[in-house]
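Late entry, written up from scratch paper. The run itself happened at the end of the previous shift, but nothing got recorded in the book at the time, so transcribing now.
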Amino acid sequence: MTHSAPQPAPEPAPHTGPPRWLAWSTRYTDHVAEVCTTPAGRADLASGHSLRALAEPWRMLPHVRTRIPRHAGDTKIAYLAVAAMYAAYAPNPATVRQDDVTTWNPAHGDFGWSLALAVQRGVLREESATELLKDLARKRELPALIRRLQPVVRRLADAGVPLSWPRLLNHLVRWPRNRTDIADQWMYSHYAPTTIPDGEAEESAA
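Output as recorded:
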């Protein structure tokens, strides 16, 4: 099955930030990016490269402990996993540093959007992307989802496929309670790959 190429959102007005429902996750991922501007900080966060490492995140915690909500509970692993994946796989923000380090880009859609772009660029076959989305949808537990996501995120990053880190964090944190809705959204984004308008569409999920 073929689908249209992912389309970027219209250019935002100057200094336009993320929508309100993504503000909290963007603040966290921006902090992670700031930590990663130093080699030591990036290495500490990247040390959480596996579920075993995430279970003993001693090097990571000094950098992100105060940024993880106290009510995070079992979803704390989502914050740690996103920080580790960003540090390990995302382009080094120190090499493209501007006045403000930010992970927000309104032209980047969710994970399904990224997979559609990967198919368009020949990084993944359509059949592989579809099977991956089906497999992810079956992961009821957050650790199992993260274990399956890690090598895929690495493959996308190695190929230069854009990934919205704030959107990914938002979805991982919400996964235990909203798995079906998020999996459906990834599938719809994959087959109709346009960026979600930066309005109030998901405000209730914040």
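Residues 165-191 form the longest helix (27 residues).
(Scratch paper discarded after transcription.)
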